[in-house]
Hints:
Chains A, B: InterPro entries: Aminotrans_V_dom, PyrdxlP-dep_Trfase, PyrdxlP-dep_Trfase_major, PyrdxlP-dep_Trfase_small, SP_NH2Trfase/AEP_transaminase. Chains A, B: This is Aminotransferase. Two copies of one chain form a homodimer. The first copy, chain A, is of the alpha/beta class. Chain A contains 14 helices and 13 strands. Chain A folds into two domains: about 20-280, 3-Layer(aba) Sandwich (Aspartate Aminotransferase, domain 2); about 285-410, Aspartate Aminotransferase, domain 1 (Alpha-Beta Complex), CATH 3.90.1150. Chains A and B meet through helix 1, helix 2, helix 3, helix 4 and helix 10 of A and helix 1, helix 2, helix 3, helix 4 and helix 10 of B.
Amino acid sequence: MAFPELHTPMRTIMTPGPVEVDPRVLRAMSTPILGQFDPAFTTIMNEVMEMLRLVFQTKNKWAFPIDGTSRSGNEAILCSIIEPGDKVLVPIFGRFGHLLVEICERYGAEVHTIECSWGEVFDPQVVIKEIKKVSPKITAIVHGETSTGCMQPLKEIGVACRELDVLLVVDAVASIGGTDVKVDEWCIDGLIGGTQKCLSVPSGMAPITYNERIEKIIQSRKKVERGIATEEDRQKVLSHRPIISNYFDLSMLQDYWGPRRLNHHTEATSMIYALREGLRLVLEEGLEKRFARHKIHESALVAGVKAMGLTLFGDQENKLPCVTCIGIPEGIDGEAVRGMLLNEFSIEIASSFGPLHGKIWRIGTMGFSCRKENILFVLASLEAVLLRQGFEVNRGEALQAALDVYVGKTEKVGVGRGSI
Amino acid sequence: MAFPELHTPMRTIMTPGPVEVDPRVLRAMSTPILGQFDPAFTTIMNEVMEMLRLVFQTKNKWAFPIDGTSRSGNEAILCSIIEPGDKVLVPIFGRFGHLLVEICERYGAEVHTIECSWGEVFDPQVVIKEIKKVSPKITAIVHGETSTGCMQPLKEIGVACRELDVLLVVDAVASIGGTDVKVDEWCIDGLIGGTQKCLSVPSGMAPITYNERIEKIIQSRKKVERGIATEEDRQKVLSHRPIISNYFDLSMLQDYWGPRRLNHHTEATSMIYALREGLRLVLEEGLEKRFARHKIHESALVAGVKAMGLTLFGDQENKLPCVTCIGIPEGIDGEAVRGMLLNEFSIEIASSFGPLHGKIWRIGTMGFSCRKENILFVLASLEAVLLRQGFEVNRGEALQAALDVYVGKTEKVGVGRGSI
């Protein structure tokens, strides 16, 4: 049985993640590894923590990745603070709100939900009213819903949670690195970011941050593994309500990422190299410039889509800048369009989940994929494919509209990661 | 705040993991990524499953990686089959037996343990007697204990478990790819391998396999996430005892790795590329040849260590071929020796945990690190450092003894991954 050398097609990846990885990140991953307790490696771990704080816009002591894909970060924070019977409020406005419910329920929380239609977000006052009614220990909410392309305003909710002594946990997997996520200013207690979206790092890590309000709960449930515990550690175990998961036990992860460097797992070396390089790219570009870049490309894409004669899906006032949802026109087979884009143009765009499956396409403009040539190529290709599938678009208008945006917004039109 | 380009020292990594990554694996990781449902990517996923079956020596349908470090594989299998109150027997002969206990207890198992001294393994009959006494649902045991360098014979235990209708779950993180692990022949129901040890792939994935006995339990607890469930899925949820972890829920992971391709997490693309290349290297070398290579380098290392005048630790009859434990001589500061090896020679060897901390050094001979030049370099360096630290070794003997092994075992003395 022979397995050939890895040989992959080149794709233009315009989904809401995973997106194209910056070549500098790919290169960083091919660096020979170091041992996990090598001082040269623990220095890198500390640098990653420092860079994460800057990207999360926080002064939190704890900011490090969980070694798993994005949802592992959700589970790590939630399972470390939820004890059976704890009340959790989850406002749901798309698929990933359901995921939060699912995780909380599995760990024994009494989950209260409010829902709004997919494609809308909550008026913060509605959420705050519900918080007052339910008095939960935790409110868990998604920031950017990739399933619907909507972004929930959080600041008012955060301030209210702090006043009411409710913990606010936010899934910012899709938004981090692509638009403002102000952990401290918005009074977010625990937050999960994603790597494979606006950070343009491969999937496989979930950077998280949490503050001392969450740390206090974690410390009260702290445990040191028997195989490595000292006598002192054993005597300190007062808790009869340990965190259920060993892998996601933040009290142990803290001891690994903190100065004690107590062995837990073996840190995923090459992924740390990737994350470090991805964060460096964000900081080199600068948060404000990076967010502005995402906005400009979003504008060009939106202008092109509209000019073509297609309609956007969802509340445009609360649009997630890095995800654009497009209604699939009547009579058009959405999957046939996606298939032709992939097979003829080597472009990937996404469908959606649940109630939106078959109704919308989703185009991501995230991180390194969020480049002018990609926007123009996806518009040109979508036009051609729609014509081929029998949908009469406004021929030639999409690219003109997109170019108008670019010409209006910048003089320098280059190719490259920071370029617009 | 400026973060410089990643710049790491080159190390000779002779710990029991993580070990040096094969350059072909590093290169595979720098391949541009694909979307997770791109047919080109799902083909790669299927290839990885097929290669894993060969390395695990199994015909099991299910063989895929968990996206997390090694212990995530332990947790995934155990949490997917343990329900509160289930009896689990864990025979402990080192640190990682304690880890199995810890995971099982957290998920509510009634854990029974037997222990033997660190540095020994169990007479299989002792374990079988205990199984008969306890009548557990599951026996969970480590195959190769990296903390003590011992390897537990499993076949008799496996056959007995099958006869007694007990599930056997094995942690083969340290042994897979370095010595025989015969999942089917040894009647192992669920098994966890590691990437960063004898496979020479970076840490961050945990390849697992399990058979239909385990699948049956998983299927009875099956759940489809609300955000993506169809009406049919919803009606099928009969279970009131779902798996607690969402991330490690094998019933959902099966639906992602199987033909349904139901979205769970976003597969860690670059790590899959790495694992694929690591497995290709194992299969190209051939299991028998690879295991023989590990044995020869072990022999050379052991001969050198003995010739130097040092003593080996632990039951040599049941030695893990890829980990050699050495007693730290009286009056010598083990950490000072390790520090000097790292700082002067850029070589990393390991200490150990718990009762063995400060008493032994552990030298790994795993995967790509398991090369002649590495063995010779570590012996030469250890000799020099010990002399410097005031321990009078038999000068010059170690390398002569190691070379004798190599000259006796092979004519061709090359440098390279498959070479001895």
